[in-house]
Design brief:
The protein is an all-alpha fold. The chain contains 4 helices and no strands. It is elongated, with a radius of gyration of 18 Å.
């Protein structure tokens, strides 16, 4: 939960102190923080309710929550890939100048 506080603080500072020329599309830090934020906010309630889902709704609810969690992990890793590509592109642009 403390992690979510730091992520929200990052977004707050980013929005309030951002330079007019800052492009989030090419900022690797933004994509990494966004991936971690999405993973934490979506999977935390699922993991917290895992036993409740299993005992009250059966094995299928646990199976579907596991599958949904895997989809969220895939989205998180896609955002990490976007961050690494943005970092690579920004290094290539600064090298060319």
């Amino acid at each position: 939960m403390l992690f979510l506080y730091f992520v929200l603080y990052y977004y707050y500072k980013l929005l309030n102190n951002a330079e007019p020329t800052l492009k989030l599309w090419t900022d690797p830090t933004f994509w990494i923080v966004t991936g971690l934020f999405l993973y934490a906010t979506i999977t935390l309630p699922i993991f917290a309710l895992k036993d409740y889902l299993l005992f009250n709704f059966g094995i299928y609810a646990a199976y579907y929550s596991f599958a949904f969690t895997n989809v969220i992990v895939i989205v998180e890793y896609l955002l990490f890939i976007k961050a690494f590509r943005a970092a690579k592109d920004s290094v290539a642009i600064s090298s060319a100048e």
